[in-house]
């Protein structure tokens, strides 16, 4: 389970940091400090879980395989650069913010790619990070319309568009894994549909219902509430959206580690 939570927390942290690139500075110092601090806390927790399980030597089941140490180093680098980015906001250092944000994103991408065993897994991991970050960032930003009264609606609209795009890409990646050359989890899901027992099939269907069908059913409502500038209503729906996305991506991480399904 250490690997499951490591992947989940790393993807969530990377996506949240990446989503900050679309938020204007008018969201305020506290918003950027909060989001980057959450990313640092989650990444540090992920590193702690991984190091407790595998140490600095890795192992046959460690994420990254033979590239375990480079992946671990990239993850630590991602956390450290994000800390410096957070401090740049705290001390009002405007010039290095964008370079630091870019550096953090690149380090997180490196950790994610190195830790993936193949192209299909890389695609699943990157779309997972994008979806987690968009859902989390949009939900947090929605609260700041109560704090920053002159925050333009375009900020939330950008993250809503990012959420829609991320969900579309994630759906495509899951669809390719299910019915493509690998057929990851397709037979197990088929057994459940036919009324037969399959432990992995149960989790495949839960992953599809919670992580794909549920969020897709809410996209239209989120977009409409943003369009009419009802930020409180949008934030309430984004709460539900975030819960579904978190549940779906955690199940996806479990299926990847336990059954080898890049869903």
List its traits.
single chain; 263 residues; mainly alpha; Four Helix Bundle (Hemerythrin (Met), subunit A); 2 domains
Q: Would you give an account of this structure?
A:
There is one protein chain. The chain is an all-alpha fold. The chain folds into two domains: 1-115, Four Helix Bundle (Hemerythrin (Met), subunit A) (Up-down Bundle), CATH 1.20.120; 117-263. It has nine helices and no strands. It has helices at 2-19, 29-54, 68-90, 97-114, 119-143, 153-179, 186-193, 199-227, 231-259. The longest helix is centred in the last third of the chain and has 29 residues, at 199-227. It is flat and about 55 Å long. The chain starts with a helix and ends with a helix.
Topology overview:
Elements (H helix, E strand, L loop, with lengths): L1 H18 L9 H26 L13 H23 L6 H18 L4 H25 L9 H27 L6 H8 L5 H29 L3 H29 L4
Helix pairs in contact: 1-2, 1-4, 1-5, 1-9, 2-3, 3-4, 5-6, 5-9, 6-8, 7-8, 8-9
In short:
The chain has 263 residues and is an all-alpha fold. The protein has helices at 2-19, 29-54, 68-90, 97-114, 119-143, 153-179, 186-193, 199-227, 231-259. The longest helix is centred in the C-terminal third of the chain and has 29 residues, at 199-227.
């Amino acid at each position: 389970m250490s690997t499951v939570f490591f992947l989940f927390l790393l993807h969530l942290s990377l996506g949240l940091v990446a989503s900050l690139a679309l938020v204007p500075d008018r969201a305020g110092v506290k918003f950027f400090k909060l989001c980057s601090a959450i990313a640092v806390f989650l990444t540090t927790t992920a590193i702690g879980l991984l190091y407790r399980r595998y140490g600095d030597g890795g192992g046959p089941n460690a994420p990254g395989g033979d590239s375990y140490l480079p992946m671990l180093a990239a993850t630590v680098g991602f956390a450290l650069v994000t800390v410096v980015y957070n401090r740049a906001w705290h001390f009002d250092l405007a010039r290095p913010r964008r370079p630091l944000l870019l550096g953090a994103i690149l380090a997180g991408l490196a950790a994610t790619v190195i830790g993936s065993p193949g192209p299909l897994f890389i695609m699943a991991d990157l779309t997972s990070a994008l979806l987690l970050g968009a859902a989390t960032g949009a939900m947090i930003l929605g609260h700041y319309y109560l704090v920053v009264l002159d925050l333009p609606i375009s900020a939330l609209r950008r993250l809503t568009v990012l959420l829609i795009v991320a969900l579309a890409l994630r759906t495509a990646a899951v669809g390719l894994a299910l019915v493509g050359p690998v057929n990851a989890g397709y037979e197990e899901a088929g057994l459940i549909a036919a009324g037969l027992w399959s432990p992995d099939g149960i989790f495949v269907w839960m992953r599809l219902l919670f992580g794909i069908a549920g969020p897709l059913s809410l996209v239209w409502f989120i977009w409409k509430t943003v369009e009419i500038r009802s930020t409180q209503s949008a934030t309430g729906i984004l709460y539900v959206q975030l819960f579904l996305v978190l549940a779906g991506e955690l199940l996806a991480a479990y299926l990847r580690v336990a059954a080898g399904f890049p869903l």
